[in-house]
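Running co-folding for beta-D-mannopyranose.
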Amino acid sequence: MAKIFGEQAIPNMPWEEKPTGHKEILWRYSGNPIFKQNPGPKAARVFNSAVVPYGDEFVGVFRADHKDITMHLHFGRSKDAVNWQLDDEDIKWVDESGKPFQPAYGYDPRVTKIGDDYFIMWCTSFAGSPTIGLGKTRDFKTFTRLENAFLPHNRNGVLFPRKIGGNYVLLSRPSDNGHTPFGDIYLSESPDMTFWGKHRCVMKAGGSWQSLKIGAGPIPIETDEGWLMIYHGVVLTCNGYVYSFGAALLDLENPSKVLYRSGNYLLTPEEPYETVGFVQNVCFPCAALVDAPTRRIAIYYGTADTYTGIAFGTVDDIIKFTKETNNLLHGDSDIGRD
Ligand code: BMA
């Protein structure tokens, strides 16, 4: 059994036991999807979103695409992390001097807690092109934008939950301006969340379900087997892109070194709410709740760019699966400097 570092007990997180006879590593919540269409006066579809425990309850930063098909971040709160009260309006950001500083759009948020701060990463508009927006809050009332991490074009920013080697570490997926037909996972370091450098390649797309592009998903989970990184992988079929997700273990002190990488997906679009929607065949994880004492994990994933689902499993089963199906590609186990 792997030791899980830094993760708190969340005894009230959503959970259902594995259905009898279920053969796969993950199983879907029976009440999926937890967000149906048109959940708010402006929000048409809520998906690819981040949730975290907060006090005895849960809060989240949600991707809500509006009824004019623009992409926004909304705050939400919940007592059980299943039934959510979503704000009608999008999050209002200020800059570090307290002046309004609203992004033109925002999507695919992640939330990482470090100390008392909750850092929020999302895909933001920078001079009209996508890059990684960064912000922080302590109370989920005042949301302060920090400097954008990178130049365009970049997406899927995921901050590790502690400094590594004295620096903050951010995963990212350099991209283009559109529905990017390529994409590998990189990391960058920063002493102060403003200046980012020491860029490293973590792993590249390749191999069946993850052959076209890959991108980090939930915040990596620190275990004594390595950082457990759940990530999405895309294959291009005759019928378009298919988004599945799998897992990798990264070296604890040098996370650009991949120790294991799942050769099979953990979850792929199968249910109608995953295969049919605004964009068909998408399972896109952005958050996970882990109850360290019981090893339970609840993965939140956007489905078909329309709904939000939860998949359950255990950290130990995912680690075992990642090792058993291991399919490291050339260069994965390197430091990724060249
Ligand atoms: C990606 C991202 C995701 C989206 C996916 C499928 O490029 O934009 O937000 O879920 O495409 O449309």
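Result summary
The CA atoms of residues 37 and 334 lie 44 Å apart.
The first strand starts at residue 27 and ends at 28.
Job closed.
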